[in-house]
């Protein structure tokens, strides 16, 4: 592979982005061993920037490092699936409630652009599918104009992508997919209209029946009702 080019500033950035994409896309699956020497040759860098990249991925909970030279993609766990679901049931409704109060004209333009042509994730989503789905939710988050909340939800989204893949192993019917699409459009409608309560209610339902919730169920987490968070 050629030397990293812009917009990557360092080889470590290039390695981090490359490995992170492979993990989130499912190319490197949960529990898979990542041999550092092999990875370095494949990516076309030395082991020093690779180790820096792996340390960053470890800080995000995506890999584990042992005392030798191998890394391992972090396993999916029922506990993490539960934690993600509990946080998102509270924070996502809060974000869209705030968005309904604080959205600007440019926020509305971005939200409407992101929902255009957005389809529920297919059974084997590619990186582009995941990016499109994230773009929509990120547009809603950013419209809250709460930087700490946006950063927190962005971090949760990164971890949740791997659990979405687990849920997608079970084929969804047309009714479920249509409901997801309808909820996306309702979220836009309520945020644009400035209806905080309605936006939060739809988002709470959206998260509670989400792929993350299905993944948690598959891993043995019993559904637990949590109160909606409103500003």
From TrEMBL:
Pfam families in the record: FCD, GntR
UniProt keyword terms in alphabetical order: DNA-binding, Transcription, Transcription regulation
Q: Which PROSITE patterns match?
A: HTH_GNTR
Report the source organism: Umezawaea endophytica
Q: Which protein is depicted?
A: GntR family transcriptional regulator
Q: Could you give a GO molecular-function term held by this entry?
A: DNA-binding transcription factor activity
Q: What SUPFAM superfamilies does the record tag this protein with?
A: GntR ligand-binding domain-like, Winged helix' DNA-binding domain
> Gene3D superfamilies of this UniProt entry?
GntR ligand-binding domain-like (1.20.120.530), Winged helix-like DNA-binding domain superfamily/Winged helix DNA-binding domain (1.10.10.10)
Q: Which PANTHER family match?
A: GLUCONATE OPERON TRANSCRIPTIONAL REPRESSOR, TRANSCRIPTIONAL REGULATOR, GNTR FAMILY
Record's signal peptide: none
């Amino acid at each position: 592979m050629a030397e990293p080019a812009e917009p990557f500033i360092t080889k470590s950035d290039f390695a981090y982005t490359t490995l992170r994409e492979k993990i989130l896309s499912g190319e490197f699956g949960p529990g898979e061993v990542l041999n550092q020497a092999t990875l370095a040759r494949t990516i076309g860098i030395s082991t020093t920037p690779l180790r820096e990249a792996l340390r960053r991925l470890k800080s995000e909970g995506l890999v584990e490092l042992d005392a030798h030279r191998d890394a391992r993609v972090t396993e999916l766990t029922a506990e993490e699936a539960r934690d993600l679901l509990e946080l998102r049931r509270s924070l996502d409704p809060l974000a869209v409630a705030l968005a309904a109060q604080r959205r600007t004209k440019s926020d509305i333009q971005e939200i409407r652009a992101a929902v255009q042509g957005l389809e529920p994730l297919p059974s084997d989503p590619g990186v582009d599918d995941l990016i499109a789905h994230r773009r929509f939710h990120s547009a809603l988050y950013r419209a809250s104009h709460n930087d700490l909340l946006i950063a927190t939800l962005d971090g949760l989204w990164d971890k949740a992508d791997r659990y979405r893949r687990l849920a997608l192993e079970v084929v969804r019917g047309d009714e479920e997919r249509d409901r997801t699409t309808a909820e996306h459009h309702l979220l836009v409608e309520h945020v644009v209209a400035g209806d905080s309560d309605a936006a939060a209610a739809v988002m709470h339902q959206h998260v509670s029946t989400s792929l993350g919730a299905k993944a948690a169920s598959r891993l043995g987490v019993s559904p637990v009702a949590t109160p909606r968070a409103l500003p």
